[in-house]
Please model this.
Amino acid sequence: MNLNEEVELLKRVPIFSKIEQAKLKLLAFTSERVNFAAGQEVCHQGDQGDTMYVILGGTADVLIDTPGGQIAVAEMKKNSFFGEIAILCDVPRTATIKAKEPLSTLKITKDMFYRLVAEFPQMAVEIMRELAHRLEDTNEKLRAATKAA
Model:
């Protein structure tokens, strides 16, 4: 895939949709394209993280370690992103991400992430919006689990 094709893919990712073309080219050029086979781990819960990922193609499971073993709590697909919590909070990875099918990602370093957020406050708003949706989804699942118990 060439640089212009990557830029077109990035334009469709909500957190990057308001970023100008030249900056998207810089992001595509400075980020690493990483592919994962079905069943391969992208990152593991508890590991230190200094990168985030944007899914360009494929799907991945979000897995959480529990005393009874790993459980899938969500599925991520094209245009989703993950790994931002480890960058924002300087905490270990909060979940394991495993490719459900062949997965194509863009790996963004912590430095580039902060540079983009500083230059494009709208990106920060989109990230907050996504995190708020995830929190609400988690709260809803907890409410349902509490009712069932």
